[in-house]
Predict the structure.
Amino acid sequence: MVLSILIGLLAFLVIGSFYPIVIKTEYYLSARAWWIFLIVGLITLVISLFVKNIYLSTILGVLAATNFWAINELFEQEERVAKGWYPANPKRTGSDQKSNKSNR
């Protein structure tokens, strides 16, 4: 029972920690960095399949799924920046940053 609650709390923390990670990744690296989340997700997924401890395997599985989810969120964050809902990185220009100045 206690371990189930702990897994739930850790899952909540992992998922919640990716919200600012996605925002910062889009700001500094752009959505072209999606492959980083893919690689980390695949690595943690494979590791979770071979870990004997069920609790650690579960957390690694949650981490893998969160990385896969972050790929979609990264592209959605790029759209939110284009709409002006989040600040764009002024150091990125051209193809790195979709500017939507007509809506401002």
Q: What stands out?
A: The helical segments are 2-29, 34-50, 54-82. The first helix runs from residue 2 to 29. Residues 2-89 form one domain.
